[in-house]
Design brief:
12 helices, two-stranded antiparallel sheet, single chain, 391 residues, mainly alpha
Length: 391
């Protein structure tokens, strides 16, 4: 666990050992007085996980390909284990931040919001044996602070999200924290929408609560956008923040579309078996995000990322944009930018800003290559950069 005085850096040190919709049996706190508490049970911090997961995964892949063990290989660690751990840490860190922590400004649970609940619940197909059971006192964030202390301030009761608030931090907003949070919410809402692990409405007797969580994320992303547009000067900006916003806007443009393109698990995936339509569809929101993505791309396209971190985030963002737009000119410009930035990663010293950034580059670049089908010529440049980084 990090020390109690350690700052909480959004997107780097998030962890939570519980489900967002826990077992319905309340945990007895025994009437203990409220105090600053550690999270229990103790787990690996997400910081340690982020630092270890990439080299261990690479080691696991290499071990599978070689007969002799490699130095530093952890017995039993494999790509499958890395994927499983990454899945749970990602899911928990997102939900504890955006629904429980109170690290920001929460959506008001007023009559307008509550009037949407019946429609949202009906959309996920609950049943008598698998009802939706919303948690008590959630804090659905429409503004997410950039940093804070994740320690509990009172004895936690997993059935009451009001007891899971964090010690918190300064009321500071940033485009980086906002864009990263929006993208994470979008990607997990896709999982809750489509992934068989969360049940098929009308067929399975499980998953309705998680599918309902996806509906909440779809609302929260739109609220976070409106908060940002209402007072953008309140958000600290950076190149990384620009790249995070372009990624989020591009992702959301497809996420809310009637075509369900973004929820189809990739442009080359087979048509989904269920649900028949995108339950998150909002054509007006899709059009708004698409227009914002186009505007943001003009800024990102002309930026000059230098660090390995910014180069990798910039590449990732324009690939997301190119995958969401039909504008041939913008796609060509994205291809040019990706090729240039990919080559910059190859030049000695130009993108060298420390070991953490090296692993960040390696991790992000590998994922971006998988998304770059719309940019085939740039794909070769990315592969060259990736191969050079691995060696």
């Amino acid at each position: 666990m990090p020390p109690k005085t350690a700052a909480f850096e959004l997107n780097w040190r998030m962890t939570m050992p519980y489900s967002v919709f826990p077992d319905p049996t309340p945990r007895d706190t025994g009437g203990a007085p409220a105090k600053r508490m550690k999270r229990t049970p103790a787990r690996l911090t997400a910081l340690a996980f982020a630092a270890l997961i990439v080299p261990l995964t690479l080691a696991a892949h290499r071990a599978e390909a070689q007969t002799a063990p490699i130095v530093g290989q952890v017995p039993g660690f494999s790509p499958a284990v890395a994927n499983e751990e990454g899945y749970w840490y990602s899911r928990y860190s997102m939900m504890t931040l955006t629904m429980q922590s109170g690290l920001g400004v929460a959506l008001p649970m007023d009559q307008s919001f509550m009037s949407m609940m019946p429609q949202m619940i009906a959309a996920v197909g609950p049943s008598a044996s698998d009802p939706v059971t919303p948690p008590m006192n959630p804090a659905l964030l429409m503004e997410v602070y950039a940093a804070g202390d994740p320690h509990y301030v009172m004895p936690p009761n997993q059935m009451d999200f009001g007891t899971l608030r964090w010690a918190g931090g300064p009321a500071a907003l940033s485009t980086l924290a906002t864009g990263k949070t929006m993208t994470k919410e979008l990607e997990w809402a896709k999982m809750f929408h489509r992934y068989a692990h969360f049940g098929q409405p009308g067929v399975d007797t499980f998953g309705s609560n998680q599918r309902f969580a996806g509906m909440l994320f779809a609302v929260m992303v739109k609220a976070q956008l409106q908060s940002y547009l209402a007072h953008p000067s309140s958000y600290s900006t950076s190149k990384s923040g620009d790249y995070a916003l372009l990624t989020a806007f591009s992702d959301a443009a497809g996420f809310y579309s009637d075509a369900d393109e973004a929820n189809n698990q990739g442009p080359n995936a087979a048509a989904p078996a269920y649900p028949a339509a995108n339950r998150y569809a909002d054509p007006a929101a899709s059009a708004q995000f698409a227009a914002l993505a186009k505007s943001e791309f003009a800024r990102v396209r002309d930026s000059q990322p230098r660090s390995a971190r910014d180069l990798s985030l910039a590449i990732q963002s324009v690939v997301w944009y190119a995958s969401s737009t039909q504008d041939a000119t913008d796609i060509a410009q994205a291809r040019t930018a990706v090729r240039s930035w990919g080559n910059a990663l190859l030049r000695p010293g130009e993108a060298d800003d420390g070991p953490r950034s090296f692993w960040h580059m390696l991790q992000k670049l590998g994922w971006t290559i998988a998304l770059s089908d719309r940019l085939p010529k740039a794909h070769r440049s990315l592969n060259g950069s990736f191969d050079a980084a691995r060696t």
